[in-house]
Amino acid sequence: MKIPKRIIKNLPPVCQLTASVVDAWGGRTYLVGGLVRDLLLDAGALSEANRDWDIAVDLRSTGKGLLGLLKELQNRTGGRYVFHHQFLTGTLMLPELRVDIAHTREESYPQPAVLPEIRPAGIEADLRRRDFTVNALALVLSGPETGTVIDPTGGASDLKHRLIRIIHPLSFIDDPTRIFRAIRFAVRFGFEIESGTLHLMRQAIAAGYPALLTPERILYELRCICRERNALKMLEAVIREGVLAACFPKSSGPEFFGVPVRQVLNELAALVHSGAGEELLMIYLLSRLPVNERFPITREERAAREALMNRNVLLERLSRVRRRSSIYQLLRGVPVRALEILAVLSPGPVRSRLRLYLDELMHVQPQLQAADLIAAGVKPGPQMGRMLERLLVARLDRRVKSRDEELALVHRLQSCNV
Ligand code: ATP
Prior knowledge:
This protein has about 425 residues and is an alpha+beta fold. It is built from 22 helices and eleven strands. Helix content is about 50%, strand content about 10%.
């Protein structure tokens, strides 16, 4: 199968440059990864912004190495490179795009679910180590074969039949992250997981292989899913197939870590329908998963997660306060992301208080600032802090509405020695 020359000509110049340098050295250059898949699905895919550009080079017969190539490309483009010697990969960063460049290699897994050992090899072996047939396609970028698609595993046919199929039977055992990936690609493209692949996927889940993954790798896959347009359907499938429960078998308990699966799915659906993006979905999931200290999550995520886990106390208190300033004082220390989630998931009256805080109260500030108070005779220090707080409360409760009314309040409070 051939891709028309005009499409190849439209690749970013750095692809052509890499191909011509490698060609002059006597090596081979290929475009690989999801880009070739997307190109076969839709010739317009190359023009999408923020594409990942994945190039594979075979330098075995050239006497040169990947590091030499990255240096050469850096000199010629003025970009910057990063080189990962142990993985035989590198990245070239240019102002307008970044390109991942890897040496073609084969790999073996010393144990299930650990990162593979790799050795340089040709393009066919490189494609056969990949996750699914539809991702095991390469496009030749130089020499007489330019434009030819290399397809050793039947990926083009599976694309036509809309199937996600693994390349060898131990695939999910070698790397259980492929379970998440199979679901993600199937939902993204509206493909089916081929029946043999589905069977092996379910066997790997039932046999507990996802539990061998590190939290890093599990969270990476969840973040990839949360970034997708159809994240809800993917998360539903991941939860229904028991993938997450299998990742954390010690804590899994009944249903979804002790919460009815239906409830988790309903809450996820409500969040997605309210327009929640990647960050909120991820925090919600973290609040339902048995996260411990070792989990690589940000400080903000951890704080928001904790607030969500203590939601019952917070919501109960919130249901009892009426005054605008009391709502403010109750919620001001709570991470905003957690409140945004609770504003979607909570019942009526509490929800409207959360929305009031998020849309209005948290942005309220007195007009007078510290310098104005000093000019009005307030001493810097604790008295200033108390005065600013009183002004804020008065503003929140709409007892003062202008700068003059604020000043009048300051004078009144001073006369009472606040
Ligand atoms: P996307 O459109 O989401 O970027 P992609 O197919 O480019 O999809 P990447 O995660 O960027 O996905 O991976 C690039 C390529 O690397 C894949 O197409 C696949 O060939 C290979 N790959 C990625 N992850 C794995 C894996 N876990 N096992 C085997 N091959 C993988």
